[in-house]
Amino acid sequence: MEPERQRSGRTLKKGRKRSRIPSKLVGAAEAMRSRWDLEENQQPVAKKARLSTILFTENCEITHGQLCELLKYAVLGKSSFPKPSWCQLFHQNHLNNVVVFILQGLSQLHFYKFYLEFGFLRKAFKHKFCLPPPSSDFLADIIGLQKKQIIGNLPKAMEGALPSASSKVSINLQKDPIIQKYGSKKVGLTSYLLTKEEMETYHFPLQGFPDCENFVPTKCNGSVTDNSPLFGLDCEMCLTSKGRELTRISLVAEGGDCVMDELVKPDNKIVDYLTSFSGITKKILNPVTTKLKDVQRQLKMLLPPDAVLVGHSLDLDLRALKMIHPYVIDTSLLYVREQGRRFKLKFLAKAILGKDIQCPDRLGHDATEDARTTLELARYFLKYGPKKIAELNLEALSSHQESQEPKNKAELVQQLNTSVLECLDSVGQKLLFLTREADASALSSSQNCQTIKCLSNKEVLEQARVEIPLFPFSIVQFSLEPFSPSLTEEMKKRIKIKWTEMSTVYAGPFNKNCNLRALKRLFKSFGPVRSMTFVLETHQPHLCIQYEVLEAAQLAIESLDDILVEGSCIKVQRPVTELTLDCDTLVNELEQDSENRGTIYLSGVSETFKEHLLQQSSLFLGLKAVILPKDLKSGKQKRYCFLRFKTFSSAQRALSILTGKDWKLKGRHALTPRHLHAWLRGLPHESRLPGVRVIPPPLEQEALQMLKVDHPKIAAWHWGRKIGKLYHNLCSGTLCLILLPGTKSTHGSLSGLGLMGIKDEEESTTPNTCL
């Protein structure tokens, strides 16, 4: 077989000069184009394949199906496939090759735990995105091999029925997050109500909180029992000059009857009706005279004293209503998911109840239908109990719905029934798959795939040097030994603590008669503050400020350390713990991360900042994108932003202007990419007392494995360098992806990370100066 494989390789090389993938020119993904992306009207000087600067997802998580979209589009282009829904690939016909490196056994957690060791990867690839935990065959998912099996053959639970004993998948129920939270026994309604602590954690409006001063209580203060009535609630919102405001409310009683369905006219000027979600248009809302205070009064009259409100992300609905209610069941939290993620209502409706809601052929969502669905989901959970729900294995079912729903029958066949292998076959090309012999995959036995099985990672690497230039599309898989479950749990806790401590500063000493209000205003000017406390343990008072973003903490240190403030020369520094000892090095390396090059952070921006920026765009040449973070709950724009420029010099010039006397903003070069914020939000909240050891005694012996060559820390450094050498030998115009798939086992799951770039992409404009 070996001579035949080599002949095949020579034929491919002889049949093409540069392994160029035949296709037509690619355009931008208009349907998903970001309104912040300013490069859309700029034509490149030279026709080079290039990727967009911003990925079009709020949480920066790309499904395996969406990744498959990009790979198929890279092979055939827009003449045969829709443009990727999540990124822009310009001049696809100038791609020469596609190479995918897979580091099996590693996850996003490993990447940021060993960030300093992954030197080449973080500097070479400026596009990064989150991946969900892998399914049973990650490779088949991203190539599209399993799509045919999914159509028309969904599991029983997707039809709304509980699985029979013969159809149950072998899963460890004790590790299921639903069982871990509620136990396995059926309990009454009151056990599923959110506690006050949970309501505070998930930003529900609560009595006495400063951001709820004008909120109206429902006056439901009766004694709740397991027989208390349930009411399904759903609201639709629009975007006004003051943020999100209510446009429709639906309330459904336990029997399924709609007892309230009202359109509401906002108090402020509407800037976006959000019709695709709400179904509300200007024409519908024009004759409406009902105001927020009217529905508040009506809701208070309708609800009995012991009413329990049920909804999906109910905190948003109550905030839109500007009302406070103490007894709630939130179905997005009731059906617990791993790592703080949440199932969509549409998915739960199909998986649990067997019903289709929020159908694409309708204009927006039906608030009454959504309210009734949440009510049915709550009743279903109460009826069958947590064990039966856990046996459905919702996490596995959700992987069947990763691909975006097709818009028509032709697109169904095109997107789901065609794999990357079939795309390559249609243009007379083969896929190269290099892997260890022990790592089986559906891809190995597929037609039109040249599989080379090796005995070790080292042999995979050696074969890759020889074989990659001979094929237009290559997948190279390295298998690395993962951490043990116990050490992985410790890593998850410490990585969250580390970023929290790096974003925290201590400032002082201050005079005992200092102006505390002025000090708070000063430190808030550097960025969003999560908490600020007065430290009185010291001889003179100090402040402890925990910022939401790392840039704000760094800016405070750089601006105020050893500066005279309120009559005192203060010191501004991070807490010194075993997790922050290398933070100076880490900050310096984050500045050199390719995704942060040419990006600046600004604090103190107003709601009209973008308009002013565009009006004076001639001052900011090379501006590619304006990233305006919004509060996840209120939808309001936060008072900081990120600006991305084409070159470092353009970013440096803009920073000088924007922090000057005319704009009066505070800023510095960026340290954290967008996907990192989304990933950190999903990690469990951890806190600790000073002095906790890095390695607890039971794990000390295991920690000594750090010194071994096959440990992930050493492997990250070793294989990062090896892939770097392979990358430098790739031809110009090669689309290269590095995938850390994540892990999934009975002990839990870890989300993955993807990095991608095109070799020599816009090389002539890439700055030589590092941040």
Structure description:
This is RNA exonuclease 5 isoform X1. The chain is α/β, with parallel strands linked by helices and 771 residues long. 33% of the residues lie in helices and 19% in strands. Among the domains are: 174-400, 2-Layer Sandwich (Nucleotidyltransferase, domain 5); 597-670, 2-Layer Sandwich (Alpha-Beta Plaits), CATH 3.30.70.330. The protein contains 28 helices and 28 strands. A seven-stranded mixed β-sheet has the order 4-28-25-3-15-13-14, sandwiched between helices. Strands 6, 7, 8, 9, 10 and 12 form a six-stranded mixed β-sheet that branches. A five-stranded antiparallel β-sheet has the order 17-18-16-20-19. A hairpin with a 2-residue loop joins β26 (743-745) and β27 (748-750). α14 packs across α15. The chain is globular and about 75 Å long. The two termini are 51 Å apart.
Short description:
Helix content is 33%, strand content 19%.
Enumerate the spans where pLDDT stays under 50 for 5 or more consecutive residues. Answer: 1-45, 147-170, 402-416, 688-700, 703-710, 763-771
Q: What is the residue-mean pLDDT, rounded to a whole number?
A: 79
Span between N and C termini?
A: 51 Å
CATH superfamily of the domain at 174-400: Ribonuclease H-like superfamily/Ribonuclease H
Structural class: alpha/beta
CATH top level of the domain at 174-400? Alpha Beta
The tally of strands reads 28
Under CATH, the topology of the domain at 174-400 is which? Answer: Nucleotidyltransferase, domain 5
What percentage of residues falls in helices of 4 or more residues?
A: 25-40%
Global shape: globular
InterPro entries: Nucleotide-bd_a/b_plait_sf, RBD_domain_sf, REX1-like_exo, REXO1/3/4-like, Ribonucl_H, RNaseH-like_sf, RNaseH_sf, RRM_dom
Keywords: Exonuclease, Hydrolase, Nuclease, RNA-binding
Biased composition (Basic residues): 8-20
Organism: Odocoileus virginianus (White-tailed deer)
